[in-house]
Specification:
Pfam family, one: HTH_AsnC-type
Helix content: 25-40%
Keywords: DNA-binding, Transcription, Transcription regulation
Structural class: alpha+beta
Low-confidence stretches: none
Number of helices: 5
Order of helices and strands: HHHEHEEHE
Organism: Micromonospora vulcania
Strand order of the largest sheet: 2-3-1-4
Domain HTH asnC-type: 3-64
InterPro entries: AsnC-type_HTH_dom, Dimeric_a/b-barrel, Tscrpt_reg_AsnC-like, Tscrpt_reg_AsnC/Lrp_C, WH-like_DNA-bd_sf, WH_DNA-bd_sf
Distance between the termini: 25 Å
Length: 152
């Protein structure tokens, strides 16, 4: 599917505010509301837009401690096995296979250090995990919910 500059702008505007009306978006991209709707419907039908979600501030729900954990795994552990295990832990907000020494990188969020430690211990107990290396986040410098060009 071809995504033109108008589609990219619509996507950026939806990433910035998924509750924006088609009329509001249309005003920003010089299209009518029905034309924006047709484009959004096409982007959804082709899988470019996979859904709409609420972005929750972790501090508002009390999960202000976060860490990135490198996982080192036994022998022939597959990405699928890592993904299944990561989904079992509610503190995992992202899990990725990576290049380098580690086999995977896991992003954890927790209420405090004690909660983070408990989550990390549960993650380490997965049968395929041979070791971990953790980095605790001190502050967030840049955070972007979407991809592509800015909505500005």
């Amino acid at each position: 599917m071809q995504i033109d500059a108008v589609d990219q702008r619509i996507i950026a505007l939806l990433v910035a505010d998924a509750r924006a009306s088609y009329a509001d978006i249309g005003n920003r991209v010089s299209l009518s509301a029905p034309a924006v709707k047709r484009r959004v419907d096409r982007l959804r039908a082709t899988g470019v837009i996979r859904g709409f979600t609420a972005v929750v501030d972790p501090a508002a729900v009390g999960w202000t401690t976060e860490a990135f954990v490198e996982l080192f795994c036994a022998g022939r552990t597959t990405p699928a096995q890592i993904g299944v295990a990561a989904r079992r832990h509610p503190e995992v907000v992202g899990a990725y296979t990576v290049s380098g020494e580690a086999d995977a990188l896991v992003h954890l969020r927790a209420a405090d250090i004690a909660h983070l430690e408990a989550a990390l211990e549960r993650l380490r107990a997965e049968s395929f995990v041979t070791s971990t290396r953790s980095t605790i986040v001190l502050s967030r410098l840049v955070e972007s919910p979407g991809v592509g060009p800015s909505a500005r």
